[in-house]
Design a protein that fits this description.
It contains 12 helices and 11 strands. The chain has 349 residues and is of the alpha/beta class. Strands 1, 2, 3, 4, 5, 6, 7, 8, 9, 10 and 11 form an 11-stranded mixed beta sheet that branches.
Length: 349
């Protein structure tokens, strides 16, 4: 296996998106920031891979317009996944492993405010038995949270504690949509939004884009003083139908777990109780710092939130605050799909 590292990361997150700037106008400065971080130019990138959704954009082949941000000439080696860009990173990592390229730039973008996100995401459900009744994502998550409460796996105070810590940590994140700590007691006094969830238990609808640069071996060392070397990457899927699995568990997250200790974990948990599920299934110790960026509860741009978790974790290696970190991404209803990527300050070879 080739040693591959995360050597560049840039993001933009915003609460509202009124059509200007367009996704291309968002991506161009993000790419420029990645070039500046790594010293690479467009010609140094061997492979490009993006993550987005035509359903979110409301038109087919919407990702094609975003390719304009790369530049028309010379032609590039490019691919796309209809997923969070964390899965584009998985494809790019595999591409580098083949030996065909040494570098890759992964990017994602999403414009959630273009429609009603809760309704749009119902289209990812079983088209015969579930989508026709339009169960939205927040209601499904509330059902999942209620099951855990009724089984005694967590209580409302535990959910509030997750939200309180996330909002407090987000005060140092310039891209957070929400921030500002509050006491657990004050959070519990707020009215329910989707029983048993309150608004602070639910990720805000966010628009945004982000990009990560991957490089192998000496190319990574040239681009970054302290590369975040990928030591483990795995992706598994649970059944789509909600009645086919126990919603209080996540076998796909468990199977994707690295089995190695980490100091910091950035978990893509759009709902407070999902962080509790992921922490258990990934076997994270009590001393692991969870979501020091604030996590998805403070900003959750569709199709980049998972990639952001990997980028945020990688930055902790770059700045020397950690030697072993974990980035996690989820997709589908109620933690149906999970991807886990661990990174280290030292290459395996």
């Amino acid at each position: 296996m080739r040693d591959v590292a995360v050597v560049g990361f840039a993001q933009r997150q915003m609460k509202e998106f009124d059509g200007s700037p367009t996704c291309v106008e968002l991506l161009v400065p993000i790419f420029a920031e990645c070039y500046e971080q790594t010293g690479f130019t467009r010609q140094d990138i061997g492979f490009w891979c993006s993550g987005s959704s035509d359903y979110l954009a409301g038109r087919s082949f919407s990702f094609v317009s975003a390719v304009d941000a790369i530049g028309a000439l010379p032609p590039v080696n490019e691919s796309h996944v209809e997923m969070d860009a964390a899965w584009a990173l998985y494809e790019a990592w595999l591409k580098i492993q083949t030996g065909e390229v040494d570098t890759a730039l992964v990017y994602g973008f999403g414009k959630s405010s273009a429609g009603v996100l809760r309704r749009t995401l119902a289209l990812q459900l079983d088209p015969y038995t579930m989508t026709p009744i339009w169960p939205d994502t927040v209601s499904i998550a509330a059902l999942q949270a209620r099951l855990g409460l009724d089984q005694g796996l967590w209580d409302e105070a535990a959910l509030a504690a997750v939200a309180q810590r996330s909002l407090t940590d987000a005060e140092t994140n310039e891209w957070a949509i929400r921030s500002g700590g509050s006491s657990i007691e004050a959070l519990l006094e707020r009215s329910l939004y989707a029983d048993p969830l309150r608004k602070h238990d639910i990720a805000p609808v966010s628009d945004g884009a982000s990009a990560i640069v991957l490089a192998a071996g000496d190319r990574a060392r040239e681009a970054c003083e302290r590369p975040a070397w990928i030591t483990h990457i795995a992706h598994h899927i649970d059944p789509l139908h909600l009645g086919a699995r126990d919603l209080t568990t996540s076998p796909s997250a468990r199977r994707s777990a690295p089995g190695q200790p980490v100091e910091i974990a950035e978990l893509h948990a759009p709902f407070s109780h999902q962080e509790l599920i992921l922490r258990r299934e990934l076997g994270l110790a009590n001393d692991v710092a969870i979501n020091p960026s604030g996590g998805a509860l403070t900003a959750n741009p569709m199709f980049t939130a998972g990639l952001n978790r990997i980028g945020e974790a990688a930055q902790r290696v770059w700045d020397g605050s950690a030697d072993a970190v974990l980035g996690h991404a989820t997709s589908g209803p109620a933690l149906q799909q999970n991807l886990v990527c661990t990174m280290s300050s030292e290459a395996t070879a």
